[in-house]
Amino acid sequence: MTAVASGVFSKGHGTGNDFVLIADPDGAQPLTAERVRALADRRFGIGGDGVIRAVRAGATGDAALDAAPPGTWAMDYWNADGTVSEMCGNGVRVFVRFLLESQLAELADGEGIDIVTRAGIKRVERRGPLFAADLGAFQLGGDRLVAADGLDVDRPGLDVSTGNPHVVVALASDAELEALELHAAPALDPAPASGANVEFVVPGTIADGVGSIRMRVHERGSGETLSCGTGAVAAAMATRHWSGDAADRWIVDVPGGRLEVEVDERGHAWLTGPAELVFRGEGLTPVL
Ligand SMILES: N[C@@H](CCC[C@H](N)C(=O)O)C(=O)O
């Protein structure tokens, strides 16, 4: 290392889906793929499934984010491999917690804030210790075949868009879910042009209008993660579809904890869950 630059960052997670967060209100520190990979590296960097920059719309350098009303906070989300994504459901809750703890925004219990993402503006509300994000309308698509290590035969997967692309595969049992090896990305046939996040789901029970599922996920650009918020919505909405729309509220258990998905009267999917900041630090290497 030559010149030592310093920069502050926070580390946070939502049900174990972890992120490096950087405040850059005026857009003075744009992210690059190389910088993101260095920050997200779990051995040579801070480590995370993704890197998130908090920047004001108008200063982001990204037309999709700068289209929001000036002053709106923009979530500039990058996967650990240095690719950008349209949206991150766990990330947007952690992002709001980060704004609050950094005194960049204020939110009383029950109040909400609009955050611009590459998938449009998302409303995030503070609900006691949890945060709820309106991820908007979701779209169910067609089928494609999914092959993964640990699966005996290829399975059909359903395309679901929650702003970013997902393919959801139903499994028969917890044993099948546990037997999966998700070190390598599942193979999709046909392969989607921009890749996809792949969720494997075991449907549970439906009682009193509430359904439950268990899920594991392989995220585009990050590998297997302990949770994926948009993936939880995709998995819940695929299972809801398979059940004949039997429930509008879904409990989603992921390896990193529990999320809740609810469809409102407008057909918007709300994602509710924790958003934790675990430390704040000062970087001593040029990447920060
Ligand atoms: N973990 C996120 C999704 C992050 C982006 C995803 N890997 C993609 O490329 O679309 C979530 O909580 O939604």
Describe the structure.
This protein has 2 domains: 7-136 and 275-283, Diaminopimelate Epimerase, Chain A, domain 1 (Roll); 138-262, Diaminopimelate Epimerase, Chain A, domain 1 (Roll), CATH 3.10.310.10. α3 links the parallel β4 and β5 (112-117). 16% of the residues lie in helices and 44% in strands. It has an 18-stranded mixed β-sheet that branches. The model is unreliable at 1-6 (pLDDT under 50). It is built from 5 helices and 18 strands. The chain is globular and about 50 Å long. The protein has 288 residues and is α+β, with helices and mostly antiparallel strands. The protein has helices at residues 33-40, 63-66, 89-101, 174-179, 229-242, and strands at residues 7-14, 17-23, 50-56, 73-79, 112-117, 120-127, 130-137, 139-147, 155-161, 165-170, 187-189, 197-207, 210-219, 223-225, 249-254, 257-263, 268-273, 276-283. Residues 17, 50, 79, 85, 88-91, 164, 197, 219-222, 228-231 line the site of ligand LBFN2T5F.
Instruction: Report the bound ligands by name, code or SMILES.
Output: the ligand N[C@@H](CCC[C@H](N)C(=O)O)C(=O)O
CATH overall fold name of the largest domain: Diaminopimelate Epimerase, Chain A, domain 1
CATH superfamily of the largest domain: Diaminopimelate Epimerase, Chain A, domain 1
Could you tell me how far the N terminus lies from the C terminus, measured between alpha carbons in angstroms? 13 Å
List the domain count as a whole number: 2
Instruction: Count the E strands.
Output: 18
Which descriptor suits the 3D outline?
globular
Q: What is the CATH class of the largest domain?
A: Alpha Beta
Structural class: alpha+beta
Biggest β-sheet description: 18 strands, mixed
Q: Report the CATH architecture of the largest domain.
A: Roll
In the predicted model, the low-confidence regions spanning at least 5 consecutive residues are 1-6
- Strand content is 35-45%
Tally of individual helices: 5
**Rg value:** 18 Å
Q: How much helix is in the residues?
A: 10-25%
EC number: 5.1.1.7
GO cellular component, one term: cytosol
Keywords: Amino-acid biosynthesis, Cytoplasm, Isomerase, Lysine biosynthesis
Protein name: Diaminopimelate epimerase
